[in-house]
Amino acid sequence: MTLLLALGCGTPEPPPPPPDILVVVLDTTRADHLATYGYERDNSYQLDALASSGVVFEQAYTAGTWTWPGHAELFTGEPPWISGAHHAEPGGPSPLGQLDATLPTLAEQLGAAGYDTVGHSTNKLLDPSLGMMRGFDDARKHRTDADTVAAVRATTAAEREAPLFLFVNVLVAHTPYFVIDGVPWSGAHRARIEAAADEPLASMRMNGPDGLAVDAAQMCGDRKCSQRYMNGDLELTDELTILTDLYDGGLVQTDNALKAIVQAWTGSGRQGVVIVTSDHGEFLGEHQMLLHGHVTLPPVLHIPLVVIGPGFPAGTRHAAPVQLGDVYDTVLAQAGLEANGWTLTDGLTGTPRPGPIQAAAWADPTVSGVDRITEPWRFHMEGGSWVALRGDEVAEGDASLAESARAIPLTPNTNAHDEDVMNTLRALGYVEEGG
């Protein structure tokens, strides 16, 4: 009988190979300006297609307000007050606080598990020399999104025995906002911008090798136009319409880049996990704000998140709030590794997310004299309500949550990068000469 039972069992099935994993960050993309999230303009066809194959998380939030803390949260699962990836203490050699070297990154974890880890980015702050891409076997910063997409094609076409973890960042939605003639609501502004002699549009206009653009971070007199607007020293009327239309045009280009990335991925025969998200959103005049990086309010915190993979039913929309950092443990679990915390699949199966949604922004040491952005900000959401604090005072939202928001630690990061990194930032154009 024992022999018969053994014969009946046969040879155990080998475990499935680890999945390939693609994570795409659509830099500076706010969820509420995407058709996938109900926006009136058709600007996210590829994201819609991915959404039909996976899960759309309708209320995903980042814990930071700019590239550095947003990517640190994605790569470590920790908010900026834990990771240290936020503005450094004023007076230091660099405005960037270093990412805590003791926190294991996704690339390190997956690399140790046998993955090939490759990162391609257009964002200057993801230049490998700055430290955010720690753990990648191959990390490269490219000049344009077209260069990034070309690198993705080469990476996906390469034969490899190990599973692949591929991270991609595309930047076209980030300021400066380019005039895109193939997008009606963007191209319609070309003549107006080219002919502009009036201020502040003439000051915000840029015309270079990459095309005609408008950038609110240009100087209007002795201060950036965006800073003057946020401080109430500059009135913008039709300029806000132009900024919004050009930004929305950039989202079309972003979606086109996403399409090219997905085509390269699927064309290589990979059948794995695909995650599309953003590091932060963008202000387009709401709350008397422009751009991003300073204030913890929904336009800059609410980001897209679409996930395709085992346990993510096709065509599903998930309404409960989640945090960008939840992607970290989700990726580890999808790779068959031990997840230390709650995953997005836990949420889909009904397990409540532990803890609130939170975010913070530190005072920018490179900015002075702009009251609204020279104080730290906090954001706290629970039970469908939220509050944003400027300093210790309630700026907007439900004041009953103020004490919980004040509990978010805002200790300065004294572990700033050194002067060599500051020189790199200047060379990359991220920090102005003399800044």
What fraction of residues sit in β-strands? 15-25%
Q: What is the level-2 CATH architecture name? A: 3-Layer(aba) Sandwich
Radius of gyration from the CA trace?
A: 22 Å
Look at the structure and name the CATH superfamily: Alkaline Phosphatase, subunit A
Query: Structural class, from secondary structure content?
Result: alpha/beta
Low-confidence stretches: 1-8
Strand order of the largest sheet: 5-4-6-1-12-16-2-17
Major beta sheet summary: 8 strands, mixed
Mean pLDDT: 91
CATH fold-level assignment: Alkaline Phosphatase, subunit A
Number of strands: 22
Total number of helices: 16
Q: What is the CATH domain class?
A: Alpha Beta
Distance between the termini: 82 Å
Q: What would your notes on this structure say?
A:
The structure is a single chain. Helix 6 packs parallel to helix 11 (238-267). It contains 16 helices and 22 strands. The protein has an eight-stranded mixed β-sheet with strand order 5-4-6-1-12-16-2-17, sandwiched between helices. Strands 19-20-21-22 form a four-stranded antiparallel β-sheet. It has a single domain (17-428), classed as 3-Layer(aba) Sandwich (Alkaline Phosphatase, subunit A), CATH 3.40.720. The chain has helices at 2-9, 45-53, 67-76, 80-83, 106-112, 145-157, 184-187, 190-195, 201-204, 225-230, 238-267, 298-301, 326-334, 344-348, 402-406, 419-428, and strands spanning 21-26, 55-57, 60-61, 116-121, 138-141, 164-170, 177-178, 205-208, 211-214, 219-220, 223-224, 273-277, 283-284, 290-291, 302-303, 305-308, 316-318, 322-323, 357-361, 377-382, 385-390, 393-397. The chain is of the alpha/beta class and 435 residues long. Strand 13 (283-284) and strand 14 form a beta hairpin.
